Amino acid sequence: MPVNVVCWKRAICLEFMEKADVLEYYDQTVNSPSGSFYIPAVLRVPHLLQVIKRRRIKSNLSRKNILYRDNYTCQYCSSHENLTIDHVLSAARGGQWKWENLVTACAKCNSKKGQKTLEEANMKLINIPKAPKDYDILAIPLTSAAIKMLKMRKGTPEEWRQYLSQPSSEP
C-alpha cells in the first residue's frame, strides 16, 4: 500500500538509520567521502515508524484527515461523490474548526444544510464526529486517483510501477 513519497536524501537516511527496508534501488548512485551508494527507490516502513506518524496525523486536523476519518463518505447520505467538509454547527453560528464539529459531506448535502442546524435542515448524521484515537489512523494511503496520476506522470520511475499497479482500496 503506497503511503508517501520522500526525497532521495530522506530515503538514504531512513535506510542507514534502519528505520526502513529498501525493496528497490535505482541504478544511479551518489558519492560521499565514505563511499558510493545506490539510491533507494521503494521503501517499506516498519510498524514502529508508522506509530510515530500516527500521533502526528492525529494532532493534524486537516481536510485530508477528516475525509479519511469519515471513510471518504458523506456523513448525511453515504455518497462518495463531490465531497466537501461541513461544519455541523456552522461557523456563522459560532461553530469551530474542531474534530467534533467537522464532517465529510457531499456538495448536495452541504448546500441543503447551509447554515442551518441539523434539526432545522431535518438532517441526521450517520456517525457522530469525534477526534480519532491514536489507533484509529495507521497511515493515510495514497488514493487511487493519486496513484493513477503518478502512473500517468511522465517520468514515473520504472522501479515504482509494480507497487503502483495495485491501487490501495480507498477506506
UniProtKB/TrEMBL annotation:
It comes from the Eukaryota. InterPro entries: HNH_5, HNH_nuc, NA-targeting_endonuclease. Residues 61-111 form the HNH nuclease domain. Coiled coil: none annotated. PANTHER family: OS07G0170200 PROTEIN, SLL1193 PROTEIN. This is Uncharacterized protein LOC118345604. It comes from Juglans regia.
